[in-house]
Amino acid sequence: MSARLHVTQPGPQMTVQDRGRIGFQAFGVPVCGALDMVALRLANALVGNAPDAAALECRLAGPAFTVEGGPARLALAGASATIEVTTEGDTQRFPAWRAVDVPAGARVRIGALGGSGCAVLAVAGGIDVPLVLGSRATDLKGGFGGLEGRPVAPGDVLPLGPAPAAGPPLELPRPPALAPEGPLRVVLGPQADAFTEDGLATFLGTPYRVSREADRMGMRLEGAPLAFRESADIVSDGIAGGSIQVPGSGLPIVLLADHQTIGGYAKIATLISADLPAAGRLLPGAELRFAAVSVAEAEEARRRLETEIGRLLASLTPVREGARIDEAALFGENLISGVVSAFESE
Amino acid sequence: MGEPHERADGRIGALARFLPVGDTAFAVEFGARIAPNINAHVHRAAAVLAEAAPAGLVETVPTFRSLLVHYDPTLTSAAALQDIVGALDLGEATHGALARIWRIPVLYGGEAGPDLDDVAGVTGLSPEEVVVRHAGEVYRVYVQGFLPGFAYMGDLVPELDLPRLSTPRVRVPPGSVAIAQRMTGIYPVASPGGWRLLGNTPVRLFDPSHSPPTLFAPGDGVRFVPVDADTHADVCRQVADSAYLPDCEVPA
């Protein structure tokens, strides 16, 4: 039997995710998939997986589990965190953004996430749950995919696929910036004309805050309500990842990975795909602003992001063993002094 | 050039307008209303585009009056894809004839349809008259969405045209047959929902282990057939044994 993860304590709302369920939205089946697609690609690359391998999406904090049935290589990407690996009473600590080889029988505990509300934990071979409609992504609302469509629970055993040929463990020398550098960029429409001039100016000119009603479906924002010309209601039409719909309250909702396929509220704008991962990282209370760009500018931004991801993937290098020991010691000290994020000093 | 003049009207570019939906999608909007002929254009456009399969096309989502085209901006651009889509010809005018008509057994009222008496009260009809009107029409499957396999079907008779509940239920049981405005639908899975519940059907509308995963297809017709509690329970058992497929007729 191949290696598996025996979960003792899942992180909050931890789910199995991959690149999403493509091709079934016409049947009302949402795409789902990782909130932070950049993190998914980097985490999978760090353990030698194909980009479409299924991984664990962690929210706020990572899980605790035991590796059984064989060794496992794992990597966390998308946030900073401390990965504790305990073997026969000896605990070693590792940072995110690098592969960690864990022997069979070892206990792994991943602490609070820093710098992002979500992260991706990839394991070599991928989380080997059955494909449903071409994807292993968890559809929480539909109740299928991943582990029967639910978050990972204590006691779950996650099977791993056959691990790819293992070279030396890799690390990402310079992790990407996680916070958006400026306003989140949007393309206005498809129903921007449902709003007054003032409504549009408010949307692009005032800050919003992520409310507590934020999950994988979307983030309800708090701030100045947007004025409609007539009403919020439209004849339902299609929704894309990043669509920003505005119900009668006038407060925008940014729709994320688990968004429904169609909806009946006017959509003032769509977040551009290059900024969608950054939106997925935001936590309740985070402040954000929007800036409008053209479709062509949005497409160019996406191409630049792809180039940047390509550059990051090409920069993966074998872990420097000497550096690892120093890093582990540094992390130990940081933990004692209460510093959670590995990047707060950068 | 050289095309017969009357066929020029069938081009998507002449029938629809494009609306921006970020850099991974655009809407091809054929109208603003819910109408069978507009909806038929949408579904025809989805079929024609799937056949053309231009580079960078990811998937399409037909809705009542528009087609959402998802694309990969690393493989194409909205401008390039809209040129291709606009030039596609929908061919023969479609009038939205129903492809096939399903007969769906429904237990009306009671626990299965907790809003039936309220709907009767608000509309001034008796519960029996509400059932006769709801079961008296053949409905068109316009769109599937909101939930996996949730079909928006219409048009409901004007007498049953009521707004959604002002306070949606936290949990609507699967199989609930419901109405809102001029539409009727069946909740395929348990979900929060604001439609008014008239009854329940055991028929399984969505099965992710099948491809396609839904029973209905756009352009299908659906007729609801009132059944008693014994028949409902019997169909439930057959569905549980995967031994039930509802009756379906193909119109002449």
Protein traits:
heterodimer, A: 346 residues, alpha+beta, Cyclophilin, 2 domains, six-stranded antiparallel sheet, 5 helices, B: 252 residues, Gyrase A, domain 2, four-stranded antiparallel sheet, 14 strands, 23% helix, disordered N terminus
Task: Tell me what you see in this structure.
The complex is a heterodimer of chains A (346) and B (252). Chain A has 5 helices and 23 strands. Chain A is an alpha+beta fold. Chain A has 2 domains: 4-177, no CATH class; 184-305, Cyclophilin (Beta Barrel), CATH 2.40.100. In chain A, the strands form 5 sheets. In chain A, strands 21-14-15-18-17-20-13-22 form an 8-stranded mixed beta sheet. A 6-stranded antiparallel beta sheet of chain A has the order 7-6-9-4-1-11. Chain A has a 5-stranded antiparallel beta sheet with strand order 2-3-10-5-8, with helices on one face. By secondary structure, chain B is α+β, with helices and mostly antiparallel strands. Chain B contains 6 helices and 14 strands. In chain B, strands 5-12-9-10-7-6-13 form a 7-stranded mixed β-barrel. A 4-stranded antiparallel beta sheet of chain B has the order 1-2-4-3. Chain B has a two-stranded antiparallel ribbon with strand order 8-11. In chain B, a hairpin with a 3-residue loop joins strand 1 (17-21) and strand 2 (25-29). Chain B is elongated, with a radius of gyration of 20 Å. Chains A and B meet through strand 13, strand 16, strand 20 and helix 4 of A and strand 1, strand 2, strand 3 and strand 4 of B.
Architecture blueprint of SSEs:
The complex is a heterodimer of chains A (346) and B (252).
Chain A: E1 4-9, E2 15-17, H1 37-46, E3 55-59, E4 64-68, E5 72-77, E6 82-87, E7 90-95, E8 99-102, E9 107-110, E10 118-123, E11 157-159, E12 170-171, E13 184-188, H2 197-205, E14 208-214, E15 218-222, E16 233-238, E17 243-245, E18 253-255, E19 262-265, E20 267-271, H3 276-281, E21 287-288, E22 290-292, H4 295-314, E23 317-318, H5 321-336
Parallel strand pairs in A: 13-22
Antiparallel strand pairs in A: 1-4, 1-11, 2-3, 3-10, 4-9, 5-8, 5-10, 6-7, 6-9, 12-23, 13-20, 14-15, 14-21, 15-18, 16-19, 17-18, 17-20
Chain B: H1 12-15, E1 17-21, E2 25-29, H2 36-52, E3 57-62, E4 66-71, H3 78-87, E5 101-108, H4 116-123, H5 127-134, E6 139-144, E7 151-154, E8 169-172, E9 176-180, E10 183-186, E11 191-193, E12 196-200, E13 221-226, H6 229-240, E14 248-249
Pfam family, one (chain B): CT_C_D
EC number (chain B): 3.5.2.9
Keywords (chain B): ATP-binding, Hydrolase, Nucleotide-binding
